[in-house]
């Protein structure tokens, strides 16, 4: 009888060790939040690559990340919000454009190629381009919207005449390289070394990024 009573008696909770009181809970929750967000983004990139934009679902992303559908929505609000966070955007251009005009074509080319080489066909922008190429309207809208964000960053950094036209040309060149080397992956461009691609790309975009001064007409 006494043993039964003793078994039912609540045992006191152990005292927290030094530095492990209530003050440690927020940092742990913060770490969990960051880890969950990163897991969701990685899952979104994988789902986008495997299934394309139209067939990618929030529930599939949540299952892949090991979280709930509601948690994904709390973090990102919508499928489009999730993709915007998963795909590198204008924030990645800050360091590239911050150095001024000297060496700018080389910095743009190197940053672009290094990013694409690191992810290759797994880069989420490649998957979005594939979806847009087969006329998925939502994917096309999202792609154009994200390109416009990058274009605004370029327009703020570039100098000289016809900035809007030059920024559009720059985007077209980068899109062409992306499609040939990382989507189609065929032809000489696909087999070049990254260093060679950087060199050729820098030479190609230099007159777009840094147009030569207009030639003066000699009056007779």
Automatic annotation (TrEMBL):
<dbReference type="InterPro" id="IPR041678">
    <property type="entry name" value="TetR_C_16"/>
</dbReference>
<protein>
    <submittedName>
        <fullName>TetR family transcriptional regulator</fullName>
    </submittedName>
</protein>
<keyword id="KW-0805">Transcription regulation</keyword>
<feature type="region of interest" description="Disordered">
    <location>
        <begin position="1"/>
        <end position="33"/>
    </location>
</feature>
<dbReference type="Pfam" id="PF00440">
    <property type="entry name" value="TetR_N"/>
</dbReference>
<feature type="domain" description="HTH tetR-type">
    <location>
        <begin position="34"/>
        <end position="94"/>
    </location>
</feature>
<keyword id="KW-0238">DNA-binding</keyword>
<feature type="compositionally biased region" description="Basic and acidic residues">
    <location>
        <begin position="1"/>
        <end position="14"/>
    </location>
</feature>
<feature type="DNA-binding region" description="H-T-H motif">
    <location>
        <begin position="57"/>
        <end position="76"/>
    </location>
</feature>
<dbReference type="InterPro" id="IPR009057">
    <property type="entry name" value="Homeodomain-like_sf"/>
</dbReference>
<dbReference type="InterPro" id="IPR036271">
    <property type="entry name" value="Tet_transcr_reg_TetR-rel_C_sf"/>
</dbReference>
<dbReference type="Pfam" id="PF17920">
    <property type="entry name" value="TetR_C_16"/>
</dbReference>
<dbReference type="InterPro" id="IPR001647">
    <property type="entry name" value="HTH_TetR"/>
</dbReference>
<keyword id="KW-0804">Transcription</keyword>
<dbReference type="InterPro" id="IPR050109">
    <property type="entry name" value="HTH-type_TetR-like_transc_reg"/>
</dbReference>
